[in-house]
Design the sequence.
């Protein structure tokens, strides 16, 4: 049995831990051979491979990034892409595929499975917004990094009687903001799922200034005010016409300064959240997911994604996993809201 | 409503986060008053209290330890202890109790509940060996600390062609060893649940020496060899007659040196694992448990312990929670075993 | 003897360690009393004080920020400011002052000394750009934080075949960029002292892309291109007309993308660099500086600043210390340049 | 020009950073070729080499350990060792040697130089006890690790009203104990240079217990009591007859328990202090030392050791560097003593 492995989408701590687990268990328990595909779907599309044996995965468990490289190549947008992948897999003698990635990568995996490719998916998103799994690896690391940064900002805010706005990742779901905000004692947490009222935010800020402590606002990059409340300046786009990372944090700082008369500064954590060595939680989770994925291959359970439910690794349909986004439920936000202000 | 709060047993990162959540939510949502009892059950036994209001819990979320202090005072071994506690609670006007602690503390809580004290328990053990909850707070922090230490030891082992034995906490359950060992790529993990065969351990060590990497063995303090295999020297007791922390790690190092002829050194992580600032995971978990515990008081659901199941905080009977120890199941150990050697 | 203490200017890890050392040694060795002035020069100007005894400084050694608060109040710009300060010191019975701060704070200290105020200065700047001292406390912490962030970004850059630009503090001097860039293996380091040639930067980026590694550029916020090379868009100002933090990093990313056709992203570390717990180096340095400052008061050596030279704490004239900025010398930059590309 | 490189003695964070700097600058600036010798002096003795080019040193800057391996092989104790080394160097066409190591390694380097081997030394010791250099790389990392551990232990000590004894490295010099103890606010610091009075130690412990804080004692492994004060049990030797790491810490804990009646526990940090990624300070220092060492080769300044003096890298005679041990001077200890108790 020859098994191909690829990693797609954005960087995420734990990718290498998954690859190592797939390969080590696959060789030791099942005697498989492995083929590494480079840069996500680009690899099987172009037949770009690298050797993937025990020595290739030695020492990679604690390392961030992915030895296989990644890309956002979307197979479905390429004419004849699926056929070329099937031809390349056949040509390379690859019997099955382990695809590690987020919504996009797994969406492609699912469509390949519908066209008879033997594929197992491993969920990956820093944002923790994939359905059917309690947590995705990388998320815990991102939350730890954000929490440490906010811990540091507390003392600066207090010494200077300043409001600090920390913008964290999360375009569509506020999980990183929710967890890092709760962990670091943020005074307000703003998430995409819940358009905010700028007046309420300012009220929290002002009530906080009355203590000896200073306000810290954690805001997901995708958070936004209720309709019409705060103009999001069109000047916020970069030279490519994309909305600039850091937009909402900076706008909030300006708005809070002008409404409270106190200094406010924003910090955008950016890519630091998704690189580097994974937390212990993420290494264990990634290892278990990888082990179970290759076991699924051995069990011939294709078209599945491995997932964490409670303390167990289970297998769910790729279809189910990629249907809807897992957003922050109201009760989880309300639980955090108790500590605002 | 006046609610007493106490923390019992060994130190554990997240205790202050629980206390803060109980107090902040209790005051904000329910208008409760709080009384802090000092040093576990010694507090209510001797009527030793401290003020516990919003200002007392400001800034404590990220801090290790417990502002209430702790002790191992066992109420049940003190004649008339229960009556004295009931009298003191009545005298202080305390209507209900939130008891934060491990098996012992919650065992006492359960017996007090049987004698009509209104009590809610919050599970606490670095060892993660309490039944009915997926994880206990403090465990994730301990695993991260152990993992970072093992990461550091890898390079030393390799540069010196040496075996390193890392002894971590876990007298009765091997959770910390299992998780930190998986996370840090240990070559062998030894846990109390599974008496080890010294010949197998040595075989793993020798096979590892044949690569460019060096063997790291993670051993829980309560791990032990199969009957008669390795004499645990009686010289290992301290001046008080207690078995010395570090015993098994040191013995393994000696045994491996004498059997392989290679250098072996042991490191005992000790109390470093249970102090200091909690990880983000533990802060979120501790906060959620604290919030739910005071909500249980408000719901008049006494005799319960709050617990994590999946991503939800639930309530279980104190009786159920304290009946049996949660040890590492065979399948979890086998999952890790794939990576040995 | 009653001694006043104040902290001025931006936040800097180690401020509390200085305050603690001044107070503990002052009380234990000399029997002094202390008065804390709040928020830099605003404190003595307005007579705003706080108690500063042994219990006030307990536990503050590892904490970021300053328990005294800070501000940028510039005494010299306030009519009659110096007289009001002298009156307030007399009224409060304050015999001498320990002023902890950067160029501005120490400049005021020097002018007060010229008008017969007994003052000793302690140098503080995250940027390490104060003359007459080898290092300032806070700098080592900032460099460690930046280095850890860049370590994390390496894996992301590599996995995505992307250039990453990391903007660090340093308006007038490139010390943080130089040290964190050297420590983290940056491919290019850009500092204010040395206007850069954008063509050379792009050449380094392109040569790096030919390896399996990806380019990381560390740029001090005050770095700038050689005349006319790269337009720094006027749109980079915030709503208050200030140049926005992050300007140069973002501009470089755009320029590199358009010149190389490869993705480039910028990360602005911002205030995270100046908050939180100090590194061990900074705690030791801050403690030694504080101890020596109060010893200088006892020796009646006023008008001096304490400084690190080699491994010794020495005393230099405030005048000497604040005359010129300590910038990165050419040979230090050339030493780093060897590792570019 | 072909240059050999070797690393000798105990592991130390920063070794790889030195190797990388030597090789990269040597190739880029001087066009040298390099030969890596494995495991310290064993490499040239046995002619055991590995390739050492640009690709061999890519990515090693942040990694602990040494890619060249290390050993304690002492050339001077081997009959004809020096001649064999000279023959091997000639046979391999190696013109000069960069030897990175501590007292022993540099002592051998010096004797080789006396016998016409062209050698430049780079000082390496975690213990910071080499003369003629302000700091050695690895020391700052060790102090940071010890400081973080002591930070964590503070909260445990306080929650349990316990004394904690932390044993750190330092057989002959107390630098790690002095710096980590000052940085972490230890209540007592015990170093080899200064035999301690057990009565004074106990007095500090008891005075500390009267506050709300708990005593932390930092003790270097080579510290010892004044004559006859505390029996150091002969049972402390391991199965090889060596004094066991952890001896003095454990003995102090027992003595303090029996004299104060309070609980005391010891933690031995051990090898964790010398492994893993170097701090930013150590990476910069190691890089600068490596760069300067290969420049010394190019300048034909053999028989020298590179060293840090103030902020400059200088060259001193190997003889001078290895003559005496740099111990903690009385005034540095007294500076720390102010904060005891």
Sequence:
């Amino acid at each position: 049995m020859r098994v191909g492995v690829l990693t797609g989408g954005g960087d995420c701590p734990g990718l290498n831990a998954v690859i190592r687990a797939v390969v080590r268990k696959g060789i030791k328990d099942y005697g498989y051979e492995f083929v590494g595909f480079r840069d996500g779907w680009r690899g099987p599309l172009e037949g770009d491979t690298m050797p993937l044996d025990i020595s290739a995965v030695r020492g990679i468990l604690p390392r961030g990034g992915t030895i296989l490289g990644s890309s956002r190549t979307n197979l479905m947008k390429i004419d004849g892409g699926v056929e070329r992948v099937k031809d390349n897999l056949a040509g390379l003698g690859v019997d099955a595929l382990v695809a590690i990635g987020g919504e996009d990568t797994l969406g492609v995996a699912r469509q390949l499975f519908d066209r008879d490719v033997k594929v197992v998916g491993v969920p990956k998103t820093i944002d923790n917004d994939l359905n059917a799994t309690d947590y995705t690896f990388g998320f815990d690391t991102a939350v730890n990094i954000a929490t440490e940064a906010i811990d540091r900002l507390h003392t600066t805010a207090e010494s200077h009687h300043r409001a600090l706005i920390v913008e964290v990742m999360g375009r569509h779901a506020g999980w990183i903001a929710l967890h890092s905000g709760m962990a670091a004692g943020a005074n307000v947490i703003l998430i995409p799922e819940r358009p905010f009222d700028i007046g309420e935010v300012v009220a929290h800020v002002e009530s906080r200034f009355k203590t000896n402590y200073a306000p810290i606002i954690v805001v997901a990059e995708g958070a936004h005010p209720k309709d019409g409340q705060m103009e999001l300046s069109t000047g916020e786009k970069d030279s490519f016409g994309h909305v600039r990372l850091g937009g909402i944090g900076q706008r909030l700082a300006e708005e809070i300064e002008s409404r409270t008369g106190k200094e406010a500064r924003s910090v955008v954590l950016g890519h630091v959240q998704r690189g580097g060595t994974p937390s212990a939680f993420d290494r264990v989770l990634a290892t278990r997911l990888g082990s179970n994925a290759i076991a699924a291959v051995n069990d011939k359970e294709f078209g599945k994604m491995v997932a964490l439910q409670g303390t167990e690794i289970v297998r769910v349909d790729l279809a189910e996993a990629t249907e809807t986004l897992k957003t922050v439920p109201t009760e989880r936000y309300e639980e955090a809201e108790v500590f605002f202000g």
Remarks:
- DSSP finds twelve helices and eleven strands in chain C.
- Chain C touches chain A through 48 residues (CB under 8 Å).
- The two ends of chain C are 58 Å apart (CA to CA).
- Chain C has two domains: 2-137+278-323, 142-274.
